[in-house]
Amino acid sequence: MPSTTVYNQAGEALEQLELSEQVFGVTPNMAVLHQVVTAQLVNRRQGNASTKTRGEVSGGNKKPYRQKGTGNARQGSTRAPQFRHGGTVFGPRPHPYHQDVPKKMRRLAIRSVLSDKVANESLIVVDNLSLEQPRTRDMLEILNKLPIGDDADQDAQPGRVLMMLPQRDENIVLSIRNVPTAKVQHVCSINVIELLKHDYVVMPVQTVRWLELVFGEGLSAEEASRKVAEELDEKQGSVEIEMTGEEDLAETETVSAIDEDALATSTSATGTPTETADAGEEDSAETETEAETKTKTVSESESESEIAEEGTRGDH
């Protein structure tokens, strides 16, 4: 199964991405490629080239001179092809140049070119392709960091680069339009001519997925775009959930640390729980002793008062 390296915008290799065998691993069919390229080139022609014959050129209604006696060849009009300002013989006439190519042949040609790009390591896949603001310098830095061109020959000019995006990004479009050796287009506009004309093809992982859905599973462009967008939304949602979980965990750890600090502070101010319990027991014991002492004192005073009353009664 074919595979390629996934890079980030800094040019660092992240992982190996396995590609579909049906799309990126076929044997190039040169005959189909030639037919598709020829059809695409001739279909660009408008077919409106036209010339005028001697019957359509203005003028020349009068015989230039008499038939005999002049010594010249006989002529009936000055708009004959041999005369200046005369008509054109067998000139182009408006007609269509259109050639129809079956859908299966067009898709086979595109799969052949993509497979050739992968085999020659001319397909560069990045994890994400985006810019915060349109700036040509930032785009040039990204292109210089990616493995484009011959690294052994520093003086060699970088090859032509074609960027294929799963959806339009205005910052990318504005940043790359001043780069003469680079071009950006939507993946729905993929065609054999552009793939062959450019030396390297740069695309994010979502574009690879779109190509596999369309040229591998046979989905339409609209269905593939919708499915890729849904998968991208699910991925972003899972990333947000993970980030939220990490934030909640961090908050929980922070709260636990705060609680531990508060407990340590209160413990240092009031003593340990054991010391506090011992102190409470001592206080309760002292309280009970005082209560017993007061009870004894009251009972003694009551006894003395009773003895005094009895003595007074005996005197009487």
Brief description of this entry?
The protein is of the alpha/beta class.
CATH H-tier superfamily of one domain:
Ribosomal protein L4/L1
- CATH C-level category of one domain: Alpha Beta
- Let me know the average pLDDT: 84
Q: What structural class is derived from the secondary structure elements?
A: alpha/beta
Largest sheet: 6 strands, mixed
Tally the beta strands. Answer: 6
Give structural notes.
The protein has 316 residues and is of the alpha/beta class. Among the domains are: 167 residues, Ribosomal Protein L4, Chain: A; 50 residues. The protein has 9 helices and 6 strands, in the order ββαααβαβαβαβααα. The longest helix is centred in the C-terminal third of the chain and has 50 residues. The N and C termini lie far apart (131 Å).
Describe the protein's topology.
Blueprint: E1 3-7, E2 13-18, H1 21-24, H2 30-42, H3 103-119, E3 123-126, H4 136-145, E4 161-165, H5 170-176, E5 182-186, H6 192-197, E6 200-204, H7 205-215, H8 221-270, H9 273-315
Parallel strand pairs: 1-3, 3-6, 4-5, 4-6
Antiparallel strand pairs: 1-2
Helix pairs in contact: 2-3, 4-5, 7-8
List keywords for this structure.
alpha/beta; Ribosomal Protein L4, Chain: A; rod-shaped; 9 helices; 9% strand; single chain; six-stranded mixed β-sheet; 316 residues
